[in-house]
What does this fold into?
Amino acid sequence: MGPPGAGKGTQAKVICEQKKVPQISTGDILREAAKEGTEKGLKAKEIMDSGRLVSDEIVIDIIKDRIQKDDCKNGFLLDGFPRTRIQADALKKLLEDLNLKLDHVINIDVPGEELIKRLLNRAKIEGRTDDNKTTIENRIRVYQEKTQELIDYYSKMGILKNINGLGTPGDVTSKIKQVLNN
Ligand code: AMP
It folds into this structure.
């Protein structure tokens, strides 16, 4: 978990390589669908480019299918999901049905000004169409309105670990690894 620009994708990639589990990023899956140009994918792209969230129903279906694939047998890492209370409740139910449990929820904490700086920089490097100033501000607002409450939700479940997301990517990875190994 963490706001846009916190480094979720970067960290998820490294952790997944080390733990040998798949990285399940709803953002990546949606961007792939958009690239394929299907009707659903193009609709998702329009929403993503505006900074809003794709419907709960769509992302819950994506996760439901994905976590039942063979490569998830020894665990998986969710990156960018859940993002709403409805998604978190759906995940809880889904995991219960599959007899699985969440071991850790990692929240990467980064202050607002730093996020905008990082996202504008990413826009130059990766050319993501949702990394422009207006969309970035929307995404941060949407995060505050819809996703931030999940920090409390997972904190009450006793599985939330807060990580300071400032510093180099390597520094942040070390902090996450410490938490995962404890
Ligand atoms: P990300 O790559 O995680 O920053 O996601 C990029 C965009 O994909 C978001 O701004 C949303 O429009 C969409 N998206 C990704 N994950 C979700 C999710 N769990 N729920 C709704 N929309 C999502």
